[in-house]
Design brief:
Blueprint lengths: L1 E12 L2 E12 L3 E5 L6 H9 L6 E6 L2 E2 L5 H6 L2 E3 L12 H11 L11 H17 L15 H14 L4 E5 L7 H12 L6 E5 L3 H7 L2 E6 L2 E6 L1 H6 L1 H8 L3
Parallel strand pairs: 3-8, 3-9, 6-7, 7-8
Antiparallel strand pairs: 1-2, 1-4, 4-5, 9-10
Helix pairs in contact: 3-4, 3-5
């Protein structure tokens, strides 16, 4: 079964059509790269998939269920998680507290006022395990605003993974990172379970092509090409408008 099926998806902002009749499917466990010039509609697509925006027309299915009319939190409950171009942390809270909030949001009876202390202990153990797994235990008690931008991006990725999503949308996870941080975050993404479906927007083509199984290319809100890396690199229109030609 396909993880995502997108059929005739469009989004208008007044007289501007940001996304126009886009259709494609993503198989379960696939790593799908979304590329295109600035303004091509990539983030609009992610906002439609995650429920930030409502579609002007078209249909979105998640593991066979029509989610077009569902809210963000309903889609999250079904296993859809995402990161944003700008980190989405609570800046005054510690890294640990940010992670505990994410874990609690995904737990049964989220934010219940009668949650048992044993449940809180379990959440702390899960948070400790995640921070140790990704080598960030040393910054657990530091406020999010006090850690480096690269560390914030890594924590943001861990928060998304804490929900144990079936589908993960990553919106430019390498943006603003140093070369060493790009290597680290690339390794984090590569090590994610293969049963997790990943859609990735990324401008670092070397990294993006290395991670992707298949690639979809947007231009001016339209899907103009789809295929594996060699197919996209050889596509004349993609070379002309995005990858560059000599």
């Amino acid at each position: 079964m396909s993880a995502l099926v997108i059929e005739g998806l469009s989004r208008n902002f007044g007289g501007l059509r940001a996304l126009s009749n886009v259709s494609f499917s993503v198989e379960a466990g696939e790593r799908r790269l979304i590329i295109g010039p600035n303004g091509a509609g990539k983030t609009t697509l992610f906002n439609l998939l995650s429920g930030v925006f409502k579609a002007s027309s078209g249909r979105i299915s998640l593991f066979g269920r029509d989610v077009t009319g569902l809210s963000m939190h309903e889609r999250a409950r079904m296993g859809l998680a995402r990161t944003f171009q700008i980190t989405n942390l609570f800046p005054r809270l510690s890294v640990m507290d940010n992670l505990l909030i994410a874990l609690q949001a995904g737990a049964p009876g989220a934010f219940s006022l009668t949650r048992r202390m044993r449940d809180q202990t379990v959440l702390h153990a899960q948070a400790d395990a995640l921070l140790n797994q990704w080598g960030l235990a040393s910054i657990a008690m530091r406020a999010a605003r006090e850690i480096s931008y690269g560390e914030q991006r890594q924590v943001d990725l861990i928060l998304a993974m804490a929900m144990q999503p079936r589908v993960l949308l990553l919106d430019e996870p390498m943006a603003g990172l140093s070369a060493a941080e790009v290597v680290r975050v690339t390794g984090m993404i590569r090590s994610l379970p293969r049963e997790m479906t990943i859609l990735l927007i990324e401008h670092d083509m070397d990294v993006a092509f290395e991670l992707a199984d298949r690639i979809a290319v947007l231009h001016q809100g339209c899907l103009i090409a789809e295929g594996d890396g060699p197919t996209i690199r050889a596509h004349p229109q993609v070379s002309e408008i995005y990858l560059g030609v000599e």
